[in-house]
Amino acid sequence: MSDTHILLVISEAETRLFLERTVLSPAGYFVSSTADWNTAESILQRNPPDMVVLSEQIDGRSCLEKARLLFQRFPFTPVCLLVDRDSEITAIQAVRLGFYDCWQVPLKSAEILQTVERALAQRQRWLEQVRLKTRQGTSSLEERMNALEAIQRIGRKVTSMLDLDSILSAVVDAAVEITNAEEGSLLLVDEMTGEFYMRAASQNFQQEYISSFRLPIHDPLLAEVLKTGKPVVVDGKTPQKIKTSYLVHTLIYAPLIVQERVIGVLEVDHRQSGKSFSEQHIMLMSALADYSAIAIENARLYARTESERKKLESILTGIEEAVIVVDEDRRLALINRKAREAFGIPAEASVYGRRAREVIQHPDLLDILFDSNPTIPTRAELTLDDGRVLNAQITPLRGIGLVISMQDITYLKELDRIKSDFVHTVSHDLRSPLTAILGYVELIDRVGPVNDQQREFIHRVQVSVQNITALINDLLDLGRIEAGFDTRKEVVQLSTIAQYAIDGFKNRLVEKSLELQVDIPDDLPKILGNPVRLRQMLNNLIGNAHKYTPEGGCVSVKAHAEGGQVILQVSDNGPGIPPADQPYIFDKFYRASNVPADTPGTGLGLAIVKSIVENHLGRVWVDSTLGKGTTFTIVLPAIDSAF
Ligand code: ATP
Ligand code: MG
Prior knowledge:
Helix content is 47%, strand content 24%. By secondary structure, it is of the alpha+beta class.
């Protein structure tokens, strides 16, 4: 008992010493005693006492004010007041003021010791209570923290996992854990049968029980949840028959609500004990039920999207075209069987969502994917490692990305090559007899007189043979340029070549009353090219403008330099080219649908132009509006930028 500390602040020495030496110390208490407040204060700070005894007067003044401060500072320390026999303060007043007891001089040892014991026991009880309360507070706080953590955990699961079974099992486990229930389950409405079935359950349920569990929808409690969309709580002492096969004492049913419809309930119960559930439990169950509803809805949406995707994929897998879809960040969204085969991507490799660059190695395909940002559909040819050639149609789709569909055109390419070879051989072999025909026709009037009609016939033969020769020359040229035989190039000034070409057309333009506009600066940057071919290119373009533009129209030839390139444009205000024909006019033998049948031509001119331009590392395209006119634009690299 020596660690029980009693502080005596008593001005009267005799009483103080009596209490200390005769009563308290012998009883085993540790006593500090003083007559003044200053010393008392330092003792209070140094070693707070378990009990205090104050005399009514200290330092010549009433102790009441100081006592009040003491009650506030040490609310669990009993303070006794020592009063004289003639004091005005009664024992009742003292207790009302907050003192534990009031002792009157002369003091009786036995009474004092009894009071001290009682006071200390009281103090002990107060402290116990406080400890208990604190412990309760802490554990309920801990419980709450655990509950919140469990909810947070489930929240994370719901957003990060798509496996519905694990999510729902985790939800039921958390519900049981948070509510300290004996068991829990998640029941869903079976739309087909109108019954509740068990979708997930706590560990204590047998698998067969879960799978065979069925509860009619009109079960009174479930029906109430379905009707009100609010949690239902059973909190009775007598076991209630809730489920068909067992009794429960207490339970919570929290509704799973999707689009204002109850699709199931999350349930926890006590079967053995009659432990009740708190308001907080109901609230947490509702939160968990909401999570389950979200998870179920997510899974349903995912399943639907996935089945749509699978359907689309099997369609795309079945078709003969290779198809690749990338999103706007160039991540693979779809790649079908043919495309995997073509680009050597193993069927089992999971590629969706990965960057195209990580999956695809083919350099030309990567160029298509990354180097261009097309806004309109474009075309390109891709040669695969095994020599096959694919024709790629690249279609940008807003909000989706790029769709690349590819057809194998190896066979067509081969046909094209055979055809070119054939045309080349035949044209070559035709040229000699044609030269012979022309030669002999020219000789006819030298060997004897011819009449006018004969002369006319001879002229027609000559024109026809010239036409055939021109055609054959075109074909041979094309063959040569395409075969890459045309490699001779020199530094040339396009303005000079253009001028020659224009001069060659001047008379014909005047004859057809076509106005000619020329805007070609002399100081165009030089280009590296074949002057004969460049002239041929201009002749074809100006020739077309002349041929297709009706009398009185206008033809213009312009050039300028821009960004290390020379840009040449040949325009007219003729009939224009129908949009449907425009993609094909550079193909061999193609003529637009609006060309009158009697307009001479074979559809080779622009094919030659395109071959020449490409042979010079340039680009050519057409802009044309029906009834308004046509502009051909050619871009050729100027000498500095090309080399
Ligand atoms: P050729 O082989 O004699 O040049 P062509 O002129 O018909 O015959 P291309 O020069 O290749 O062949 O032109 C292809 C087609 O493009 C033409 O048939 C015509 O329909 C269209 N075309 C070309 N240039 C023009 C133009 N300036 N105005 C309208 N249509 C044009
Ligand atoms: Mg032409």
